[in-house]
Here is the input.
Amino acid sequence: MKEFNHPNLVLINRFFEAYSLRSISVIREVLHSQVKWNVPGRHPLSGTKSGMEEIIEYMDQLAEFNFMSEGIVLGFSDDHIIDCHRVWNNQGKNPTINTMLCILWKIQDGKIREIFSFPQDQYEIDHFFNSQLES
Here is the structure.
């Protein structure tokens, strides 16, 4: 994605870089102390993750799938970022996944306060995680 100087874009780019490097200390710096991540769906990873520890645990769970992503569009205001990207995975049990996802990031006090995920096809996401995380 093209980089800009708006503080919210700098913040989100720091988050993405920290996530890709698994830098938990930087992730803690960019997340608000009362952060929430709203994950829709009917699968084991869905639900609202509250606080840094739950979000870091969720990110650790996602990392196991070795997702790749490619940015499509990034928009911003003084309080929000909208990030749409293509996500895919070619590992693990069938099925693999190749879909679009938009994420709305709410920014408060210069930190990520709340995150809302909007997948292109919720049924595909549910099927993917349910099949991958079967006992």
